[in-house]
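Bit of a strange request maybe. I'm writing a small parser for structure token strings and I need a real example to test against, not something I typed by hand. Could someone generate the tokens for this chain?
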Amino acid sequence: MKVLNSFQNMVKPFLLFLGFMMLQQAVQAQFDIAGGSITGNFKLEAQTYQEDSMIGAEKVAEKMRSNSYMNLKYSNGNFTAGIRFEGYLKTMLGYDQGYDGFGLANRFASYSGELFEVTAGNFYEQFGNGLILRTYEDKDLGYDNSLDGARVKIKPINGVVITGIIGQQRLYWEKGEGIVRGVDGEFSLNELIPGLDSSENRFILGGSFVSKFQADEDPLYILPENVGAGAGRLNFSRDGFILNTEFAYKGQDPSADNNKIYKPGSALLMNTNYSQSGLGIMVQYKWVDNMGFRSERGAQLNNLNINYLPAITRNHAYAFAAMYPYATQIDGEAGFQTEIFYKFKKETLLGGKYGTQVTFNYARVHDIQRKALDSLTVIGQDGTDGYKTNFLSMSDSLLNQDINIEITKKLSDNWKVILTYQHLDFNQAALQGHGGMVNTNTVIADISWRIKPKHTLRIESQVLFTDKADFAIDSLHSVKIKQDYGNWAMLVLEYSVSPHWFFALSDQFNFVSIDDEIAKNTFKYVHNGDDFHRNHYYTVAMGYSKGASRIQMSYGKQREGILCVGGVCRNVPAAYGFNVSISSTF
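Reply from user aminoacidic:
Good idea to test on real output. This should exercise your parser:
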């Protein structure tokens, strides 16, 4: 309670200041609510559930569950206010059940002037690349770590922006116990230094400091109540070249993420891009050591993250290429990604009549090297500094390797094809806690045929193959079986009548190649005695869009898996039933 009262006392001056500015606006500009505008959007998604033991779809007592939200924003001159209603009745499977309920989840008011911008209530903010602060929401992930408090942005002179924040993070329908404070400064040197304003070289420097407070009530350890993190960044650009780099350092922060070790954390992120007509090159590098940063030291999963560590792997849009998504390892990782885009010109050997686009992507991530503190201390021992490591170290332990190439080719005015190949090495044991190294090869063909104006048929086919691995039946015998769930095939037929209608039929087929009957029985044993089946996951869907409104309905089976966006993930359970999605923006 003392912490809450202290927080409220700190926020009150911001609220009073915001109220004063609103009053001043009303007096000086004859503020008229009726003269403003209201905008918003909403979405409702509902799913029915049928039990299906063959695919692992569970029985759900409610038979149907739904997620929904509505945003409303009022704007009038320099003043903006907004609210968001959310309803989870009950929360759909695959999303955190802590969201169960209905109510007002977000509200804010903001005033923006020439010198400053003030916001009170719920807000989202990012300092730099997010290495020490990023709050955002993603409904597909069921992720929302917004801050409830106050934010001030000051622009004292051209080229300088200072941002200060204070607040508590959202935790379902409540707020986390910890208090987050931070300040960020961004400086455009070309606007600040005489003579640089006309230079083709553009420089932006930035620096951030973020701290959190949480009372120490641990009966065993003396835990730091205030934990700070700092970061510095540089952005350089010239013509088609961009370099962005940021380094972050975090103080001692024993938590559930790191088994309560006292080792400081650090991270380095580098992004380079070069582009010119028909060519684009991107190179990324990231090194992370013990950079979990939450406003409550006991929080886990996707709850109460203060910072964001982007995954340096490609976000795949196709189902099988994304079957084994990589999640950022906040305790430690070292990796890089490079992507090259090239467009062969028209009327050339490889370009043909319409040109050809080729994208090559390669990403590789390893664990970092860790050494014991001494001969008596186990690596990662709680209550110690955990381990020793060298800056930019990389171990031999491969976590993820993704090699993929995509070719996009227009064959005629009516035909277009996208061909994709991916090879993936995925350390399932290290990343998901079971299995071993999974090696996959995926081939995808996506063909579009414009039958007549506004009528298009799209045919998408995918095949995923896994390698074989030894499985020991006993101490004397072993067999080779397919890794994880084996091979998959997928076919999608989608017919669209633009701009309103689409109809789709799809099937994912899990065909697992087993060498002999012994291996088949072994597979049966591995999967807890369930009967051996080669499952089909079929789906029929249709949708209608008009303007900014859309309704979509589908019926079928959904395979179990993991959904990741930008290195943040959630589990998706197997499901069987109807799904309805309605959305609109106004």
